């Protein structure tokens, strides 16, 4: 494990690897930033959005779909053009979008959360189809996180962070619907909270533990297979990348750390790279 880039994220999230560019993208939520780091050249770029941003995904035809405080938009980084697709919660001003990711068929899932009252179950998980239809998938969520699909697309994972649970669902890949929700891992007795996640080529789930200072690999049956610790506690999310998809990039933050915490964790908010000894899967792109 090594530090890749001193990003200084306030609240880093949604890491996405771009194989064509050899670059890692991620967001800094409260700053409304999409950021990019090209590994080979160490070149950096950023895009300022007009509101806080929870997550994004690349589109198959170019550009991005982005989940902002004020709804889901399409975004063209080349022109900075932003166009609203849906704002499903105009009546919930305390809510914002958080985690978002595409299923293997290119449907964009994104969830909302209450950013004023921690743990209030006023969030929801939505699905944006390629024809831009938006559907409510799961209501009454505290903090949506940990979206991932098994390699064959038959299982969907989802973490409700403040409930300390990672769920698994049977997933209908043709219809884009999860069903038969069950507890994959109950983390109520563990230090930290389940945050972002990704799946490797062997079908194991890698989960970031916010306030836990580690990432954890779970087998498809939910058993802990491996734990990797970090010199910072606020581990937000992770994704596979690199030229051979054998590197895990880990995004961290300074969020919720007091002065003493910041002093004891000078690397908080930076990006780390880990060699996990297993290959990952490229994130799916939005089909719309």
Explained architecture:
The chain is globular, with a radius of gyration of 17 Å. Helices cover 2% and strands 52% of the residues. The protein has one helix at residues 259-264; strands at 2-5, 12-18, 23-28, 33-38, 44-48, 53-58, 64-68, 71-76, 81-86, 95-102, 108-114, 123-128, 134-141, 144-149, 155-160, 165-172, 177-186, 193-199, 205-210, 214-218, 224-229, 235-241, 247-252, 271-274. The protein has a single domain, classed as Neuraminidase. Strand 18 and strand 19 (205-210) form a beta hairpin. With 288 residues, it is an all-beta fold. The model has no long low-confidence stretch (mean pLDDT 95). The strands form 6 sheets. A 4-stranded antiparallel beta sheet has the order 1-24-23-22, with no helix packed on it. Strands 2-3-4-5 form a 4-stranded antiparallel beta sheet, with no helix packed on it. The longest helix is centred in the last third of the chain and has 6 residues, at 259-264.
In short:
By secondary structure, the chain is mostly beta strands. The chain has one helix and 24 strands.
Oligomer: single chain
**Alpha-beta content class:** mainly beta
Shape: globular
CATH topology tier name: Neuraminidase
